[in-house]
TrEMBL record:
Domain RRM: 18-101
UniProt keywords, alphabetically: Cytoplasm, DNA-binding, Nucleus, RNA-binding
Biological process according to GO: DNA recombination; double-strand break repair
Identification of the protein by name: RRM domain-containing protein
CDD domains: RRM_RDM1
Compartment(s): Cytoplasm; Nucleus, Nucleolus
GO cellular component: cytoplasm; nucleolus
Record-level Gene Ontology MF annotations: DNA binding; RNA binding
Length: 280
């Protein structure tokens, strides 16, 4: 007897076998209703990364189509087979197919999940009390980056840079790993001390959130067909993180704030260029 096993990473799912395409959605329904109905139906099959509802093209009949993206290919396959040609939330049957084409932009690798989506995915598979994080160090490293930073040729601004190391613990599986987050911004001297204090507060939060994301990226969930989950932690041999007794030490590559957007809890924007498998 074969045991069904699926691997789930804390990364944006880009594989076509994790995406289902739904169409023949009636025009009489609102986008908000369709979104809530699809999320309710398909979240019963497994953790969802995204539900996207779109109106049909002008050349097509009025109505909607939708894209639902799972973290697990096994869950996507089960959902497609169970819901194809079913009415679900409307009077006529829906057509549901697996996507068969990936956007070329996906070939370079997937993106990091947002902080909020890391938490949602961890809660789904590990439980709300199945994991925890703690700050090992959160430090102002502005001086390490040099004094001052030029905004343009006519003005100077003070560079603020914060680094954070967070430890992620999954006690039931005996897994512990760490992540690093570095963020920076520039204080405009014309805006006064209030602007500096506000930016320091934001940078500390963003550095911590980025470190949590970095820790989750090392976690690999092994999901079995019976619902049980095993957890592995992958380590980078070149990464050197300090022990607790090395206060404030952070050894990381220089990361610009421009590479990290603050987490607003929304889905990451990705291009949508999918085709469907119409053979089954």
């Amino acid at each position: 007897m074969d045991i069904e096993v699926d691997l789930v990473e804390f990364r944006v799912p880009v594989e076509n076998n994790k995406t289902i395409f739904i169409w023949d959605i009636q025009a009489s329904l609102s986008e908000a209703f369709i979104y809530e109905a699809l999320w309710s139906v398909y979240s019963a099959f497994g953790a969802l990364y995204l539900v996207k509802v779109c109106p049909n093209a002008a050349v097509a009949a009025p109505g909607f189509y939708a894209i639902v993206k799972f973290y697990s290919s096994a869950h996507a396959s089960k959902a497609q087979k169970a819901t194809d040609k079913q009415r679900l939330f409307q009077n006529s049957p829906l057509k549901v197919r697996l996507s068969t084409k990936q956007n070329p932009n996906f070939l370079s690798g997937s993106q990091s999940l947002s902080h909020a989506k890391c938490q949602d995915l961890a809660n789904h598979y590990l439980g709300f009390n199945g994991w925890s994080t703690r700050i090992v160090t959160l430090k102002d490293i502005s001086k390490c980056a040099g004094v001052g930073w030029s905004l343009d040729s006519a003005s100077q601004g003070e560079l603020l840079k914060y680094g954070c190391i967070v430890e992620l613990t999954i006690p039931q599986h005996g897994v512990t790993c760490r992540g690093v987050g570095v963020t920076e911004d520039v204080v405009d001297p014309e805006k006064g001390p209030e602007d500096k204090l506000w930016k320091i507060s934001k940078l500390k939060k963003w550095a911590k959130d980025k470190a949590v994301v970095g820790a989750f990226e090392k976690v690999l969930l092994i999901v079995f067909g019976n619902g049980k989950v095993a957890v592995e932690c992958r380590f980078d041999r070149e990464e050197v993180l300090p022990d607790d007794n090395v206060e404030g030490a952070i050894q990381v590559n220089d990361i610009s704030w421009s590479e990290f957007e603050p987490d607003d809890g929304g889905a990451e924007e990705l291009p949508w260029d999918f085709t469907m498998d119409l053979s089954h």
